[in-house]
Amino acid sequence: MEVRCDAGLSQAQLAKKLGKPPSFVGKYELGERRLDVIELLFILKVLEREPCSFIKAVGDQLPERL
């Protein structure tokens, strides 16, 4: 959600750019759905975000153990 908000897009606006229903965005933002790698890369491309930087930032926030 943070990346989408930083891009200044609503869920509906991002969904339209992705060619998906707004529920697609809502469900993964709420954790009700997981994204596969291809979906994540496509979303990052639409949001004009560098995949490696995004993955590093997420990795840095992970706990030491699951």
Roughly what fraction of the amino acids lie in strands? Answer: under 5%
Percentage of helical residues? 55-70%
Number of domains: 1
Indicate the CATH architecture.
Orthogonal Bundle
Keywords:
single chain; 66 residues; mainly alpha; 434 Repressor (Amino-terminal Domain); 62% helix; 0% strand; globular
Description:
The protein has 66 residues and is mostly helical. The protein has one domain (2-60): Orthogonal Bundle (434 Repressor (Amino-terminal Domain)), CATH 1.10.260.40. The chain has five helices and no strands. The protein has helices spanning 2-6, 11-18, 22-29, 37-46, 51-60. α2 (11-18) packs across α3 (22-29). The chain is globular and about 35 Å long.
